[in-house]
Amino acid sequence: MDIELACELPRVRAMVGPEGPQRPPLVTPGEIITHDTSFMRGHGTYMENNTQVASVAGYITRVNRLITVTPLRQVYQGAIGDTIVGRITKVQNNRWKVDVNSRLDAELRLVNIQLPGGEQRRSSLEDERGMRGLLREGDLVCVEVQKISNDGGLRLAARSSKFGKLSQGTLLGVSPSLIVQDKQRMHDLPCGARVVFGANGYVYVSPTVPEEQASTYTVNFEEVPVDVRKTIGRLRNCIKLLAHHSIMISPTSVMTAYDISIEQEFEIRDMLKPDVMQDVAITTVQAMNE
Question: What is the pLDDT, as a whole number, of residue 53?
Fold first, then answer.
């Protein structure tokens, strides 16, 4: 009987990529990283008997003399300046609680948002009473991490016109470790949709809206054309299949998968079938490696 492992199949081997020093070493919890005590201990490591040991499963990253282990899967911890997507869970006195795919709900205070009209002014009692008219439970928001408290909670801010309420789109969650680190998180893709790649793993896909028509805290109830809805659905399925195969998610990889799915004439509803997901994922990696 001949047995062939899945990892030895030519198409899967092409997706995994070549072996070599260009691939970061993978370690498991308890595995020894180095006996050299001159290296500094970073996140994901600890010292035991003058030996640096991995505390999580992930990839080793070395920056000068600092060694860290980046987990394969992790809960979003937050970093100041991150652009993220969240969902309002509670409306409280002077603040909103926001689900940001983290251990704790984040906090968005009334004083840290740009009030309607765009004017910079101190929030009043009337503004506080009208908080639910701005954001209520279930609303999606695009915000920025302003501060991290001692207990790990995040304090958010939305003090410019590019932040605020999100509407007329679709949200999906992936592992934060799969989102490519980039200063620019909001991208208007050439296919006619806007994608917000939240650093916390929440990705929001919506129609492209001209900047002059964007409104921070109002919802646009105009009907979205069918072709735009199809584009959003295809992009959503492309992101989902990339995440399913642990492929890094960026504007480049998403558009590559999108173009391939159109070239191969896959229907949107068929893109979540396991065989189609694998075909598109493998072809995407091959195209990006060329």
Answer: 94
